[in-house]
TrEMBL record:
Keywords: DNA-binding, Transcription, Transcription regulation. This is HTH tetR-type domain-containing protein. One of its GO terms (biological process) is negative regulation of DNA-templated transcription. PROSITE patterns: HTH_TETR_1, HTH_TETR_2. Residues 28-47 bind DNA. SUPFAM superfamilies: Homeodomain-like (SSF46689), Tetracyclin repressor-like, C-terminal domain (SSF48498). Gene3D superfamilies: Homeodomain-like, Tetracycline Repressor, domain 2. It comes from Tumebacillus algifaecis. Residues 5-65 form the HTH tetR-type domain. InterPro entries: DNA-bd_HTH_TetR-type_CS, Homeodomain-like_sf, HTH-type_TetR-like_transc_reg, HTH_TetR, KstR2_TetR_C, Tet_transcr_reg_TetR-rel_C_sf. One of its GO terms (molecular function) is transcription cis-regulatory region binding.
Amino acid sequence: MVMRKSKMSLIFQAAIDVFSEKGFDKATMDDIATRANVAKGTIYYHFKSKEELFFFLVEEGVELLRDGVEAKLLPEMDPKEKLEVIVREQINFFGQYRDFCVILLREAWGGEERQLEFRKMIRSYMYLIENVITEGIESGDFHPVNPENAGAGIFGMLAISALHILLGKKQYDEEALFLDMNRMVFAGVLKHT
């Protein structure tokens, strides 16, 4: 994530690097401090625990994703166009912020408390997808499905597909992934005329 080179940005980047390399459970605040080239006390000045730092990273990343997608959704777009924007932008985001993607998706299914926090944070983004699904249902363009289930399904399909490529160290071809996922999304929600 792009930030000015302050101590805080060094801590964030170091935390993203360490969490993505070692996983949440094996990462330590010492590892993060060493990577950021700051004293461990500097990290504890801003964050009470490794968990608090992790949640802050996830929250910031989800907000960046949501804000980026919202900025591309224009009122004059129809629901199909909006859903295509969501698919493209989520895929592009995960390609641009690969380490964050790995952290978000691999670590989100940790302990029960972490899962609950993760679901709260990701909810604002999934609500955006749900609103587009609801709009498409109301306009008659989409099948009448449960918008919450559809939103979770679309987010999950895109996220797991991206993670599969990133963890497999394969080339992350955003356009090819967009074309495949777009076809999958619309074969399921768009009414055939």
